[in-house]
Amino acid sequence: MSAIQAAWPSGTECIAKYNFHGTAEQDLPFCKGDVLTIVAVTKITREQAERLLYPPETGLFLVRESTNYPGDYTLCVSCDGKVEHYRIMYHASKLSIDEEVYFENLMQLVEHYTSDADGLCTRLIKPKVMEGTVAAQDEFYRSGWALNMKELKLLQTIGKGEFGDVMLGDYRGNKVAVKCIKNDATAQAFLAEASVMTQLRHSNLVQLLGVIVEEKGGLYIVTEYMAKGSLVDYLRSRGRSVLGGDCLLKFSLDVCEAMEYLEGNNFVHRDLAARNVLVSEDNVAKVSDFGLTKEASSTQDTGKLPVKWTAPEALREKKFSTKSDVWSFGILLWEIYSFGRVPYPRIPLKDVVPRVEKGYKMDAPDGCPPAVYEVMKNCWHLDAATRPSFLQLREQLERIKTHELHL
Ligand code: AMP
């Protein structure tokens, strides 16, 4: 993975967790792993780029939005003490510097010129380390979230995440989970995830305990340890014979309470699914993976999304909101009551969206109480505004619990 530094017209920082090919003429295609750091609210100039690439180091590069050709991008490369600026033309959904070789996205372009100069003054060697990473580190120290590496023992690998291993650790005698990342570019994505986590605290959200930023670039995010692993694995491994109706409803309520809290704080999760819910030693379900969580109404670009969990308007128009989380919550309820089955069984993935857009809804899982199935279906209204809020969902689930409609 490489990091790409780009000037962006607005906002502060965005991390590409998914491939994005662009839907509008002006969209810049990027790929999973790209880190697009917004250097400034306004476009950065040629001179600013040159300052950012100082001290000179042949092969050091960044990408900025072109000042002369708005909508196009400029690749700035340091070579023999000088900075060269190459215009990246964006035309008909393709990127090109020389109008001979064309690329689908910036990542491909960078990869091409990393392996071969192909007419540039030098091949690309090193992306400019993002200023944001340094600022974020300082912020963690200032706000008291920095932990001491000397007090952390890493014990064993317990999972593989999007950006690196998850390990069981011991911090001052307490079991903790540690996400480890050694790569600079991805470290920034991790810091973004951690900085979201510092703002959120709820008994049904996996709690951040702190971060460790090593001098040599390693980064560790320390969270509470969830002994029973992901909810989807938990449901699959225990199954119907072990988990009764009470238990399924309890998990549903646990997640709903976390989501009600996020709703109240205007946070949208965007990736709610049973695989992103973890189970503690004492069987409490907690929502995890805040990598995509953004304050409500932000319009982050997204390409490949977990189609079966994502609301139609979010897939179609990138309209993520608490109401699109409600849609995903309905799918998660279906996962819970089917003991971890993959949603839309027997429907080829390519047919899911067209059928859902026409109003198709999954049947109730075997043995699912009708009252719970009604809650699911309400989450799947095509009209987002008609879907209930998490507050209403929590009330409905509690009613089901008190009236024992879940058995
Ligand atoms: P993630 O990177 O969050 O998707 O995590 C990948 C996998 O690591 C999960 O599916 C879990 O099995 C495991 N894992 C992540 N976080 C924790 C945690 N806090 N406690 C225990 N296991 C975890």
Walk me through what this model shows.
One of its GO terms (molecular function) is non-membrane spanning protein tyrosine kinase activity. InterPro entries: Csk-like_SH2, Kinase-like_dom_sf, Non-receptor_tyrosine_kinases, Prot_kinase_dom, Protein_kinase_ATP_BS, Ser-Thr/Tyr_kinase_cat_dom, SH2, SH2_dom_sf. This protein is α+β, with helices and mostly antiparallel strands and 407 residues long. Helices cover 32% and strands 21% of the residues. It has eleven helices and 17 strands. The strands form five sheets. It has a five-stranded mixed beta sheet, with helices on one face. A five-stranded antiparallel beta sheet has the order 9-10-11-13-12, with helices on one face. Strand 5 and strand 6 form a beta hairpin. The N and C termini lie far apart (49 Å). The N terminus is likely disordered. The structure holds adenosine monophosphate (AMP). Adenosine monophosphate binds next to strand 9. The site of adenosine monophosphate has 15 residues, from strand 9.
Compact overview of the structure:
With 407 residues, this protein is α+β, with helices and mostly antiparallel strands. It has helices at residues 46-52, 106-115, 131-142, 184-198, 231-242, 245-264, 312-317, 322-337, 349-357, 370-379, 390-402, and strands at residues 4-6, 13-15, 35-38, 60-65, 73-79, 82-91, 94-96, 126-127, 152-160, 165-171, 174-181, 208-213, 219-224, 267-268, 277-279, 285-287, 294-295.
